[in-house]
Amino acid sequence: MLTFPNAKINLGLNITEKRPDGYHNLETIFYPVPIEDALEINILNKGNGKFRLHQAGLEIEEEAESNLVVKAYKLLDDRFNLPPVDIHLFKHIPSGAGLGGGSADAAFMLKLLNNKFELGLPDDTLEEYAAKLGADCAFFIKNRPTYAEGIGNIFSPLPLSLKGYRIWLVKPDIFVSTRDAFAKIKPHHPEMSLKEIAQLPVEEWNGRMVNDFEESVFPQFPAIGEIKEEMYRQGAVYASMSGSGSSVYGLFKEDAVLPEVDFGEKAFVYKGQFTDI
Ligand SMILES: C[C@@](CO)(OP(=O)(O)O)[C@H](O)COP(=O)(O)OP(=O)(O)OC[C@H]1O[C@@H](n2ccc(N)nc2=O)[C@H](O)[C@@H]1O
Ligand SMILES: Nc1ncnc2c1ncn2[C@@H]1O[C@H](COP(=O)(O)OP(=O)(O)O)[C@@H](O)[C@H]1O
């Protein structure tokens, strides 16, 4: 059985408070983007252990044991004693990009196991399992536009559609530490709530919808800020860094022509268009 875990972008990200436990409260909108990994499971012949992981595509440094698809399998196996599985994962979504690729793989693995082994788990239960694997992981169960608050783990659905808009996304060969990015920020509440801004036409987001991480990340890595400037030079109606970086996306009108731009040999570049959710 085969599935295609997709990435997300953050539309706005306000870091509002530092908590006594050292974490930060924030508000953001997660929106699915059609950049996809491929994930397949088959039943593994007896005598080969409980799982085998075959990886292809972009490399991830993790050992198989700490790959999030394996963690997802183990979580359900502990509860349901699943048959052994042969896992094939093709990574296309860059890691450390603020695109949630690892979380997407984990959530889609839960859904895949639920279907393959007819566990009958409803979305709410799958979301509870997903939340154990990462703060944003549960978003990928329903995989619909979502307003997130708390430490990024309390969700409510949001009526929002980017249908027709083109997206140009670039992830330069730069690693941003999420922990350091948080540490450099002075939390504050925004003047206008993100939910309100999201109801405005996309053309009115620039200057209102903000990713607070940009203020801590761009001075340290000017090349990331320059990608955002390039997006606006090319006619983006809205551009932003996603999550804690390092990817940057631009949203363009349906009829926009996106030219070839050299963002460096090792940059990941994606051009696509939103369809209906
Ligand atoms: C900020 C977001 C928004 O989408 O960034 P991206 O991962 O998408 O870039 C995520 O919530 C990130 O979540 P995640 O990437 O899972 O972060 P974690 O590994 O859990 O946390 C790394 C470190 O960031 C800090 N941290 C994380 C989340 C939070 N709400 N407050 C924090 O202060 C903590 O110091 C933590 O040790
Ligand atoms: N299946 C997976 N795909 C991507 N990253 C994974 C996976 N399993 C574990 N990881 C680890 O999770 C971390 C976060 O990756 P990811 O969610 O893709 O990026 P981001 O937090 O920037 O959205 C990486 O350090 C990576 O090594």
TrEMBL record:
Broad class of enzyme this protein falls into: transferase
Binding residues annotated for ATP, in chain numbering: 94-104
Catalytic residues as annotated in Swiss-Prot or TrEMBL: 8, 136
GO MF annotation terms: 4-(cytidine 5'-diphospho)-2-C-methyl-D-erythritol kinase activity; ATP binding
Domain GHMP kinase C-terminal per the UniProt entry, residue ranges: 205-256
Coiled coil stretches, renumbered: none
Keyword Transmembrane: no
BP GO annotations: isopentenyl diphosphate biosynthetic process, methylerythritol 4-phosphate pathway; terpenoid biosynthetic process
Listed pathway(s): Isoprenoid biosynthesis; isopentenyl diphosphate biosynthesis via DXP pathway; isopentenyl diphosphate from 1-deoxy-D-xylulose 5-phosphate: step 3/6
The enzyme's E.C. designation: 2.7.1.148
Domain GHMP kinase N-terminal: 67-141
SUPFAM superfamilies: GHMP Kinase, C-terminal domain (SSF55060), Ribosomal protein S5 domain 2-like (SSF54211)
Protein keywords: ATP-binding, Isoprene biosynthesis, Kinase, Nucleotide-binding, Transferase
Kinase keyword on record: yes
Family: Belongs to the GHMP kinase family. IspE subfamily.
Alphabetized HAMAP family for the sequence: IspE
Protein name: 4-diphosphocytidyl-2-C-methyl-D-erythritol kinase
Organism annotation: Bacteroides uniformis (strain ATCC 8492 / DSM 6597 / CCUG 4942 / CIP 103695 / JCM 5828 / KCTC 5204 / NCTC 13054 / VPI 0061)
